[in-house]
Write a structure and sequence with these properties.
It comes from Nothobranchius furzeri (Turquoise killifish). By secondary structure, this protein is α/β, with parallel strands linked by helices. It has one domain (about 65-250): Rossmann fold (3-Layer(aba) Sandwich). Helices cover about 25% and strands about 20% of the residues. The protein is built from 6 helices and 10 strands, in the order ββββαββαβαβααβαβ. The protein has helices at about 85-90, 135-140, 165-175, 200-210, 210-220, 235-245; strands spanning about 15-20, 35-40, 50-55, 70-75, 105-110, 115-120, 150-160, 185-190, 225, 255. The protein has a 6-stranded mixed β-sheet, covered by helices on one side. Strands 1-10 form a two-stranded parallel sheet. β5 and β6 (about 115-120) form a beta hairpin. The longest helix is centred in the C-terminal third of the chain and has 13 residues, at about 235-245. The protein is globular and about 40 Å long.
């Protein structure tokens, strides 16, 4: 698990994230020396102010010739939505703690079905005051910094297969708002705890839950998938990655090095 030096809350985020060197070509997974990057304040703070911030360089394993483009999956969701378990499922190893509350962003890497994949686990929000709202927003805003340069960045919004009301939707919109409206262009919904469907198609669950969930799916252009992070079924990961590739064949959200 890789954790970057903590930058201040004024960080840059847009659909072409100009941060750091191309790190996806290194086979060293450990952070190296700091790199200076220019950052700009994002939504929720005064725009236009620029600062210099030190970050540790993230590296992912080098794959064999012909390896598919590097993929970064940023896992988003409320507390107990299954983010850490889903991250472990995707990477095929116990990278993220599932028995403790996630309070800071962290990343794990691996090669999966020909993809060099980075998974970023993020703190979950709560509409019941069980998490510090400002701290969660600051962590979410930093999440793209954990993605290797030149990787395809996809935001994965985890929603458990259970009730989802207007208050849940409003809380989600408030927290995800720090990423900017363009983040929705590269976001898909991942329904977790798929065993709760008991064999029913997910479309029946979507229809039953109603308008709040429909609005979220509309913002994601109906991109969604179902998984059960606790099931020992390796085919789930292949299906998920294929779904990501199908939904985002040429993603707009990339991290690129500005020379």
């Amino acid at each position: 698990m890789v954790e970057a030096t903590r930058p201040p809350r004024e960080i840059q985020y847009n659909m072409s994230i100009e941060l750091g060197p191309d790190l996806s070509r290194s086979d060293n997974r450990r952070p190296t020396g700091p790199v200076m990057v220019e950052t700009i304040q994002a939504d929720g703070w005064s725009p236009g102010q620029k600062k210099k911030t030190e970050l540790l360089r993230l590296r992912v394993p080098r794959g064999p010739a012909g390896l598919k483009s590097a993929l970064s999956l940023i896992l988003l969701g409320r507390r107990k939505s299954g983010k850490s378990s889903a991250g472990n499922m995707i990477l095929g190893k116990e990278e993220f703690q599932t028995d403790a509350r996630t309070t800071r962003c962290s990343a794990g890497q691996g090669e999966i079905s020909g993809w060099p994949v980075t998974v970023v686990d993020t703190p979950g929000w709560s509409r019941f005051g069980l998490a510090n709202p400002q701290k969660v927003k600051e962590e979410l805003l930093q999440s793209p910094l954990f993605c290797p340069v030149k990787s395809k960045v996809v935001f994965v919004l985890l929603l458990p297969v259970d009730s989802f009301g207007e208050q849940d939707r409003a809380a989600m919109e408030m927290y995800l708002g720090v990423l900017g409206v363009q983040a929705w262009e590269n976001m898909m919904v991942l329904f977790t705890y798929g065993e709760m469907l008991r064999g029913r198609p997910v479309e029946s669950h979507i229809e039953k839950v109603g308008r709040p969930l429909q609005l979220v799916l509309d913002r994601c252009k109906r991109r969604h998938h179902v998984c059960d992070p606790n099931a020992a079924d390796p085919t789930q990961v292949d299906l998920l990655l294929r779904k990501v590739e199908e939904c985002f064949p040429s993603s707009l959200a990339t991290r690129s090095h500005q020379s």
